[in-house]
């Protein structure tokens, strides 16, 4: 066993009870709850230079959360200092840094340490890890790398020939001065909606390559008053009340997405009004008006995006991209757009995440082999054939309406109960029975039928290569919380420790 010092400082131990991969909301939450539950022999691997996960990586101009601030924190560590109702990235990043230090997690974290490979050893009943700082083993593996950690850049002919500046929104080059530059933005996802209005006033020209027009609703953001922040801090019951009411308001979205889809027409009318009030040109309005039902793709929010697109130095091309040359982007309609910089706003690998190629369970089968492009996990957490493995924010746990932190805390409660069963019953392994996993997948797919995500008339990253919803939880978060309250022994295969 090789053990070396990680860039984060302390060396990797030869063995730990639990190894957690990822230092974002999921990984930090897991470390905190494990330590509170008495499991202190843990190691957290974080490939970046600091904790924070996606909120450490994504620092592009205008980056902010599209979930209300009062919902976007751990329930046990609510933040009274949010500046506004939708918190900006620097505040969320600072919040996670502060919580990690407040709960004493940083001593468990190995920064700048990337997980290369994880393999289950059925002889010794442990996980073997290869990392950028050496190798080690652990009894339990919690994969908290998250679905928004690996950028997706489409393969377009000529990309490698481009001689200008080029970067993904999640790898923003802050040293590159965009002032006076000709810029191509490829993609119109959540990130582009936020950074486009920030850079548009400074660039000489900007052409936005849009494959599908998203639904964008007004962003009802406001600054919290000093009185509100004082009340949140000195009388936390007020923040808990704000969190409670906001939570139930957000849960009501599920009704439109899953049960009463005609109700979405009201929100669609608001989206069309949002276009009309900011876009003067009728032809441009047509380009920017979605042709699918609201909610089929992720619903976005902005008060400034359309105005930026309607500016004199902006253009929208919807014909696709034919190829990229050394100094231009050639659109599908044959028009050539000379540019100095290309910014990819093309999102992340979600259903085809690369880490699935590097997690090997029993008999050496990888997650990618087990999934065949259509991820499956019992309760979105455990996978048959992968003992003592817990996948946070796994298949069918994403949300289209509320805070993923609620799902994370529900999963943590389940994981802690599973680890308690391992410990109290002297078990060597725990994994879901194949029939339990199949029953869960059937339930999820039945709940998905008739929803806007499958029948809303769009192609989205919610749907995998097999046409199956393997990303979203198609229901209420309180239902998911109830289903994950305990690790049911009857749903699991367990081996006693010899």
UniProtKB/TrEMBL annotation:
Keyword Oxidoreductase: yes
Any one GO molecular-function label of the UniProt entry: NADP binding
Keywords: FAD, Flavoprotein, Oxidoreductase
Pfam name, any one: FMO-like
InterPro entries on file: FAD-bind_Monooxygenase_sf, FAD/NAD-bd_sf, Flavin_mOase-like
Superkingdom: Bacteria
Bilayer-spanning residue ranges: none
Family the entry assigns: Belongs to the FAD-binding monooxygenase family.
Name of the featured protein: NAD(P)/FAD-dependent oxidoreductase
Species name: Lolliginicoccus lacisalsi
């Amino acid at each position: 066993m090789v053990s070396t010092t990680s860039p984060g400082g302390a060396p990797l131990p030869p063995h730990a009870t639990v190894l957690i991969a990822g230092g974002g909301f999921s990984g930090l939450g897991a470390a905190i709850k494990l330590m509170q539950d008495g499991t202190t022999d843990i190691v957290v691997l974080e490939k970046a230079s600091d904790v924070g996960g996606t909120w450490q990586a994504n620092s592009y101009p205008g980056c902010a959360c599209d979930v209300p601030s009062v919902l976007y924190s751990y329930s046990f560590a609510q933040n009274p200092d949010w500046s506004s109702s939708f918190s900006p990235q620097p505040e969320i990043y600072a919040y996670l840094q502060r919580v990690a230090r407040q709960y004493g997690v940083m001593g468990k974290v190995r920064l700048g340490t990337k997980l290369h490979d994880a393999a289950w050893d059925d002889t010794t009943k442990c996980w073997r890890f290869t990392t950028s700082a050496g190798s080690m083993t652990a009894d339990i593996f919690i994969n908290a790398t998250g679905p928004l950690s690996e950028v997706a850049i489409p393969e377009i002919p000529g990309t490698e020939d481009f001689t200008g500046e080029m970067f993904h929104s999640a790898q923003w080059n802050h040293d590159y001065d965009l002032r006076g530059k000709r810029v191509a933005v490829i993609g119109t996802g959540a990130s582009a909606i936020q950074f486009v209005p920030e850079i548009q006033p400074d660039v000489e020209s900007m052409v936005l390559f849009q494959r599908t027009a998203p639904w964008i609703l007004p962003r009802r953001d406001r600054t919290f008053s000093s009185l509100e922040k004082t009340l949140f801090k000195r009388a936390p019951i007020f923040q808990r009340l704000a969190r409670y009411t906001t939570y139930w308001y957000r849960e009501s979205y599920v009704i439109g997405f899953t049960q009463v889809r005609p109700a979405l027409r009201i929100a669609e009318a608001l989206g069309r009004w949002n276009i009309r009030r900011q876009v003067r040109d009728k032809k441009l309005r047509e380009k920017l008006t979605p042709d699918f039902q609201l909610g089929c793709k992720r619903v976005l929010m902005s008060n400034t995006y359309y105005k930026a697109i309607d500016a004199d130095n902006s253009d929208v091309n919807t014909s696709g991209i034919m190829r990229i040359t050394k100094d231009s982007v050639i659109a599908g309609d044959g028009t050539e757009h000379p540019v100095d910089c290309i910014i990819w706003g093309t999102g992340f690998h979600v259903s085809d995440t690369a880490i699935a190629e590097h997690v090997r369970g029993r008999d050496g089968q990888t997650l990618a082999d087990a999934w065949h492009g259509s991820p499956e996990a019992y309760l979105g957490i455990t996978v048959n054939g992968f003992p003592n493995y817990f996948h946070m924010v796994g298949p069918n746990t994403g949300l289209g309406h509320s805070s993923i932190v609620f799902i994370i805390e529900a999963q943590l409660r389940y994981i802690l109960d599973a680890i308690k069963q391992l410990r109290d019953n002297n078990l060597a392994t725990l994994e879901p029975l194949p029939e339990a996993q199949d029953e869960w997948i059937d339930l999820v797919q039945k709940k998905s039928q008739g929803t806007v995500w499958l029948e809303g008339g769009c192609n989205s990253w919610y749907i995998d290569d097999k046409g199956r919803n393997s990303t979203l939880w198609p229901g209420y978060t309180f239902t998911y919380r109830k289903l994950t309250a305990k690790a049911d022994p009857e749903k699991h295969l367990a081996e006693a420790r010899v």
